[in-house]
Design goal:
392 residues; mainly beta; 4-stranded antiparallel beta sheet; 2 helices; 32 strands; 50% strand; globular
């Protein structure tokens, strides 16, 4: 019967398909077994193979090779050097120029002479903003080109930049107080807000460019008080206001759109959702030694319990203000940075630590001329005098 014939043909076709699938599976299994045998014969460390492509947190990474002949890289000036990674590139600011280099071969990808008397730089994503602090010039750049440079009507006090290119900057207003200004990457003014109380010394903008915070200093009852105010761009007044005493503000930094680090000379707090404060280290309880931020905008922080103490604690503080990793340091560090590892510069050595476990991963000898360390991929880049060098 025709129907029976069609059924038999269907079953025969299905059987051939199953046999073909089994053949493919066996070929793949054979290749896997063959690869395992070859790796065993060659005594390949499977863990090291995995670690070549993934960091300890399971995030995909890569292993950089560098051209040794390209280093040390010589700078035009040794004054005011600030070295920071921008993604997988390296930015170098000094008192006359800013350069972005490819760390693998030290090839200059972008450079310019800024001409600022007191350059201060802030980074976010592929954007960086440079102001002439105390002057009246401000510019926005990407890693490979200038976006704009503009002149303000009053001296600039501070600034910050978001990942979308929005900039918040503070100027000294005509009445002697301060003015908060927000512009976007096309120089369109998004907000102007005059501050009538205190003198604004720091500002911050979240990564989305929608929220901002500013800190003002004023005298109350013969005591200097720092007040942090939080706002949405476009607001007519602050949404939250928080007072801090007993120490001096060192930095404001958004880790997420709702969480803001307050780092002072005597403590660390996190302002959450613009309305409440979590004190990681209460004001005046510790002495800040140095700090920096991870690629995820979380805080690595070194403190001592006494001003002259050589016993220091290094802590990794997440965006909620919780201490996730704590490492005891027997020496006082000069500098700290954090990418996939925490790099700590001491007067006589450089030590890298696991971000999550706190264990020592690598240690290198150095002298006191080294001023900063930054790790990109598997390489550590150091600055000293007019030179940038690499540790393999």
């Amino acid at each position: 019967m025709p129907s029976q014939k069609r059924e038999n043909e269907r079953k025969e076709k299905q059987l051939k398909s199953e046999q073909k699938t089994k053949t493919v599976i066996w070929v793949v299994l054979a290749l896997v077994v063959f690869a395992l045998i070859i790796m065993r014969i060659c005594e390949v460390d499977f863990k090291s193979v995995k670690n070549r492509f993934f960091d300890e947190n399971g995030r995909l990474t890569f292993s950089m090779t560098t051209n040794d002949d390209a280093y040390p890289y010589t700078l035009s000036s040794s004054g005011g050097i600030k070295v920071e990674p921008i993604g997988d590139k390296l930015s170098i600011l000094n008192d006359s120029t800013l350069s972005v280099i490819n760390p693998s071969d030290a090839k200059v990808l972008y450079t310019f002479t800024h001409g600022y008397a007191n350059p201060v730089i802030r980074y976010a994503g592929n954007y960086f903003c440079i102001i002439d602090q105390g002057g009246m010039r401000l510019r926005l750049d990407r890693a490979n080109k200038n976006v704009f440079e503009t002149k303000t009507d009053s001296p600039i006090v501070c600034a910050d930049v978001a990942k979308n290119g929005n900039i918040v900057y503070v100027t000294k207003s005509v009445n002697g107080k301060s003015s908060i200004n927000v512009i976007n990457s096309t120089l369109k003014k998004l907000m102007t807000f005059d501050v009538s109380e205190g003198y604004v010394v720091y500002c911050a903008i979240d990564s989305s460019g929608k929220k901002l915070a500013y800190a003002s200093v004023d005298s109350k009852n013969a005591t200097l008080v720092t007040t942090v105010n939080t706002m949405n761009i476009g607001d007519d007044e602050p949404r939250g206001s928080f007072e801090f005493k007993n120490s001096s503000l060192l930095d404001l930094h958004y880790s997420t759109s709702s969480e803001l680090y307050y780092v002072s000379s005597g403590g660390v707090s996190v302002i959450k959702n613009q309305k409440k404060v979590y004190e990681t280290f209460k004001e005046g309880s510790v002495n800040t030694v140095c700090f920096n931020y991870t690629n995820d905008n979380e805080l690595v922080y070194v403190y001592s319990k006494y001003t002259s103490s050589n016993e220091n604690e290094l802590v990794y503080i997440n965006s909620a203000g919780r201490v996730k990793t704590e490492i005891n340091l027997k020496q006082k560090p000069k500098y700290i940075s954090a990418t996939n590892d925490i790099c700590v510069l001491f007067p006589d050595k450089i030590v890298t630590y696991s971000m999550t476990k706190g264990e020592v991963k690598q240690s290198y000898k150095c002298d006191d001329s080294v001023t900063s360390v930054n790790k990109i991929s598997t390489k550590i880049f150091i600055s000293r005098h007019k030179l940038i060098d690499v540790i393999n």
